[in-house]
Every structure is written in C-alpha cells, then in structure tokens.
Amino acid sequence: LTCACARSPAGLPGESPLVRVLEDESRSRLGRFNQKDVSMVFSSEANNKALEAIFSSQLFYENRQERFIRSMAEWLPRKAENLTPYTMALIAKYVARHRLREPRLLDTIANFLLKRGEQLDSKVIQKLVFPFSRMNYRPSNHGELFPKLEAILEQKAGSSPLATVNILMSMFQLSHFPQTVLHQVFSPGFITNVMSSPYALIVRRYLSLLDAAVELEFREYSGPRLDPRYRVLMFEHALTADEANRKYSYKGLVAEALRQLVGEECYRQDEVLPPGYCTDFLLWINRSGTVLPLSRVPAASRAPPATSPVTMSLRSSVLALASDLQDFAPVVLSVNDKWHYCQNSDILVGSRAMRDRHLRLLGYCLVQLPYTELEKVSGIEEA
C-alpha cells in the first residue's frame, strides 16, 4: 500500500507510468495486507510522510474500510504509548477526514489524550478531540476524559482562543457543556483578546454558535453570555463539503420533484436560518396538512431573516414559532447525502446531528431524506 503513495514522498506525478504500475501492484496486494505491514509504516517517525501519503491516496479512499484500517485498529492500542503526539494527531486527522467510525481507533486516541493531555498544547488537543465529534462518538473513557479536558482548558483557554472554542464545539456536539470554561470564553477579557486577533471573525462565529447552543440545550447555565453586538451567523451559506459534492448530491432531484409537486412558490431552497444553519428546503404546512405558498404565510410567522441574527434572541424566536404552530408548521426537508454520515454507517456526523437537534428545538419539523432511500428512486415520478 505504501508503494501506491510513492508520488507523495518521491514527488512523482500522479499520471506517471511508474505510479500507475505501483498502484496496480498495490491493489493486487490489498487482500494480503496484514499487521506486519502496519508495523512497518509506524516503525519510525520518519515514516509520518509515508503514513500521510497513504491516508491521502486515492487507493486508500477507495478502500478505506478495508484491511489497513482493521489491521491498524488491532495494532494501534498496543503501540500507542510509543507514538508521538504528532503521529497520533496525524491518525486522528485522517480518521476524521474519512469519517471512519472505528471504536478501537477512537478509543485509542481518547486513551492517549487522557494519559498525555496535560503535556499537550491546545492545538494538538483540538486535533485529537475532533474525531469524536466528527463521528458523533463518545469514547468509552468519556467519564474521565471530559472532566480532564475541562481542567486543561481552564488553564490554557487564553493561550490559544481558536483551539479552545474548537474543543468546546466538539464537546457541545457530543452534548457535553463545560460550565467553568464557558464562564471564561464569554468573559469580557477573553472577548477583548479575541477581537484584537487576526482570527477574530472565525472565533466570533464559533462563539455565536456556542451561545445559541447554550440557549437551546444548556438552559440551567447562569454565567456570562456573548454580547449581542458580537453575534454573527456561524455559516452564511452551504458548507464547503456540500458545495464541493453538489454534483453527487440528490438535492437536485428533490428540488425538481418539489417543483413539480407543490410549485416553486411553496418552498425555499438553501435557506440559512439563525444561528447559521443552511437548510436544503423550507416549507410551511397548515393544520390540515396543506403546503402553503409563501405569500399566504404571515410575515411575522416566517423564520427570522438570516441577515440580521442580532435583532432577535433565539429564545424569543422559539416562543414566536411555538405560538405560530397553532396554525402553521415550518418544515425543513433535509437531503442527507452520503458524506453527511459516518463511513458505512447510518449515523450522522456530529455537526449535522447538532444542527438537527437545534432546528427541532427552534420549532421546525424535520423530514429526513437519506441517500440510501433516494438512491432507490427511479425517475422523477417516484421522487
């Protein structure tokens, strides 16, 4: 398998005849790949480049749930103590990128973090924590790990604000809310520090979504909150992954089916709803089950405009929607494509799962259209 990645360390072009020969040879050997091969990859830190090349290769992408991952899942727990944080972070990066919900790998990363967390800086911790939220997976040691992460963040929150809010976001996606750390990140000192930094906008985006999550899911919290003047939308448009994979999405099929079924005047596509969630399709239905043209929906009943998230608190939005549900029900039609799920799984990735929780708490009815159902559809009439 390493041979297939020769283009990366050796700098060979992907279309090189040599690379094609190596890739063909590697494919023929996949069935015989075993733990000895994994051990060779990890035999020295110099092989980090080879490891990165493997995870980045098209060959690995095509076979990412094959024997390499199974062998690594069996080998890694026994060897993790001998790996450097850099190597473990590299593994975590590609486990997350390929959405590999392999419990043995994830638990090994969690155990490494539990044992070595105090020696690591926030940026490395951020990389090691991310796979858990990405895969919507609470590691088996979360009862010990999460309190330890809280204690570390309390000490290091100010040294790396962006890493801190990223770690918090991962924990929020797993429905864990560290109260003492929230006191810090919403404090005037932390906010002032952030506003003068070059990454002010991205941290404001994260803090805005964290603040919304506190409003919706952590109602017992009584500490400081984000000043409304600093609130912005977390996302202003579709996620990068959705844009990049648009040609593979079933959203176009669903859009055409909706257009023929209810008419363009009865739904909105790619609507961004506060606190910054892009929805595939938004419809309004009355008590008798009829899809209403948007012109017949009272303006006051519609979702607050995404362009002005600071004009209305989420709590008042919830109350407004709750009263409107007596006559109208806002419906979000969600097209869940393959990359919205963990690899070979029906479990949504953490960010998507949190989005769905929040939309429901805001009063929207969610209708899920998983790709596994849509791929069975034959023609527009069935759609």
UniProtKB/TrEMBL annotation:
Recorded hits in InterPro entries, A to Z, give: FAST_2 (IPR013579), FAST_kinase (IPR050870), FAST_Leu-rich (IPR010622), RAP (IPR013584)
What do the Gene Ontology cellular component annotations say? mitochondrial matrix; ribonucleoprotein granule
Question: A Gene Ontology biological process annotation?
Answer: regulation of mitochondrial mRNA stability
Cellular compartments annotated:
Mitochondrion
**Pfam families attached to this UniProt entry:** FAST_1, FAST_2, RAP
A molecular-function term among this protein's GO annotations: RNA binding
- Using the record's annotation, list all stretches that form the RAP domain: 331-383
UniProt keyword list: Kinase, Mitochondrion, Transferase
Any idea what this protein is called?
FASTK kinase
